[in-house]
Amino acid sequence: MRAAAAALGALSLAFAAAPAAAQDSSARAVAAHFTATEAAGFSKQIERELAGKGARVAMVFRTGRPRDKLPEGIAYTHGALWVHRAIQTADGRTLSGYAVYNLYAGDGDNWSRTESRLIQDYPFDFTRGSAVDDVAVIIPSPEMQRRMLAVIDSPSYARLHNPAYSLVANPWADKYQNCNNFMLNVVASAAWETDDLQRIKANLKAHYQPTVVKADGLMRLFGPIADPRLRTDDQKGPIRTATYESMSAFMKTNGLLQEAYTLPYRRS
Amino acid sequence: MRRFILIAAATAALASPALAQDSGREGSQASTSASEAVGHLAASGVKTAVGVAAVPVSAAAVGTSVVGAGAVSVGAASVKTGEGLSVAAKDSADVSLKVDDDVVVAADPAPKVPYQPVKK
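ok -> structure tokens follow
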């Protein structure tokens, strides 16, 4: 705890000193792990595997950073909802496949880096951002899929979104939100059949254990120290955030899960 | 205090980005835009398409547009009453769903062009 406090204090010092400019371009460079063709192949592999399991809704996680740059206990850095849809194309066709429902933070150009938006894109857009050869998948139980789909297709979906963005938003609080916290809200909304955020947060505090970022992981975690998205004033004590690991554990413990697994890219 | 200073120094020295939740659009804003990616994929023999809307399979048959936030959304105001939209998910387990071969790519974002030329 003392070490965490020391590290946070150090961060606030370093925050003022370090340059902010190069963070996004560095992230893009790392995300160039796959060629476009490989990313396309991986995205189609994931789609086919989900479809083969009858998953109309799945939660898929990627990491945009190499594993050795991530803190212990955190293997993925972005998660989104994959939903089986009919996709209308620019050339007038209707295709079957998955659409991806993301919470994205701004890049500081198109919109503020401390603000997020809900944006739907496609599996190829998702795998292009991966820095490693695997993703993690949570397939909710059939009833949870049905309920989550109902949430996604209702005005509740937007109500569960808080555009105030933090990289390490506390999932027990609603001051800030990141991609995983938003997905967790969708899961909770479906599980308790409510879009009342006060009720959702109270229930999550009672039943969901976030991932605690260990003090010795802070250094790796908080590399972008001048990043304005690093906001921790919603945290009391250790830094807690939502991850693939803690969300899959919560869903497994509470019978909300069909399966959760890591899916490696099969290079041909 | 000593630990504090050491951590501060080490932290300041580390300039590489490492995010817990990197929800930035780095994937879709990488070195190539979506439309360029379509060109690259097509040149590699990958069947591609630019997606303009994603709708529930059941709604596609009747032309209803239902997507997430930021677009046209039909459905009831509460989670419970949204059930009708998701009937198709009831028997999802053990049912193989169709996935077409085409790799769907999101269209480029809306244009963002300054009204006046930028003075250099």
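The two ends of chain B are 48 Å apart (CA to CA).
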